[in-house]
User: Fold this.
Amino acid sequence: MRELQCNLPKEIDQILFKELGAVYQSGGNFDLNLTNDEQQNKTYLGTYFPRSFSESYQLFMCLFSNKSIQHVINQKSALNILEIGTGTGGNVVGMMQAMVESGLQSKAINIYSIEGNVNASGYFGKIVDRFNTLHKTRFVLHQEKIIFSAEMLKSQMTDYLRVKAIKFDFITSSKFIGEFYNFPGVFGFQLFEGLTEVISDFLQPDGIYILLDVVAGSRDHKCDFKTKIMSDELNDYVNTKSDSLKYIYPNPCACWSSICKTRGCYIEKCFKVSHSSIQNDASNVVYRIMTHKAFANQIISKRVIKEKYEISKKNECKSGIVSWIN
Assistant:
């Protein structure tokens, strides 16, 4: 399994650890973050913000290097981005950094952020303000507090999106849905599939949707490995909904999802980040990147398809069939 590495930019390192008092702490338990207090959020800033930054930055650098995606973005005078479950904002800031390095910072960019923890949102707002000052960018932040429940997730998202009445260019959610599975009794709500079904109506025809979560089981181990739940629910969605979105990454899912019969598999990726508090801090995640079918087919048609892909340290996928690596 190929590891991806990056360094946290020095100016962001300075903001986190010098200006905001972030604290790195390995081995902490942050399965549930909605009720984090100020000190817990400072620990989250120092420990998990850099990991989320690394994951998002490297995924978006990959996306922005794709010529089809480059072309559609270059035609737009402004971009609208929705982030669901923002937390302290590492995922969004990684995307912002990738935009700057890819030459997209001259556009007017609106970021719509949904988060239930006011303290975490406050830190995120400060980081965006400092980022704009440092890079002379125009990221306009629109923050809203919503406390989601598993039972009401679809209706809450639908209500929010209908009021906004915006077709988004990017919709992202990082490590948000997985937190619900750390509460007892949420198995069976189809949360990954339900969120995806709702947002598909509010994504531009050439818009990109990214759903990412950590490789982990539920907190009390009373439901299936939630990483497998994510994979199965999203596979069911793309293969049964005629108007569904379609994968463009990871490559095996993009190429073979329509013929895949495997249940309970997932594609694991290891990202590493170095900063002033630690070198090569690792996070293992799963992700799916999707868009509407016509644009997905355009992207995939220009791709060289391999005979097989490594999907974890122990497994590989060939034509939708998973096997052990010899």
Observations:
- The mean pLDDT is 90.
- The CA atoms of residues 14 and 20 lie 9 Å apart.
- The chain is about 40% helix and 25% strand.
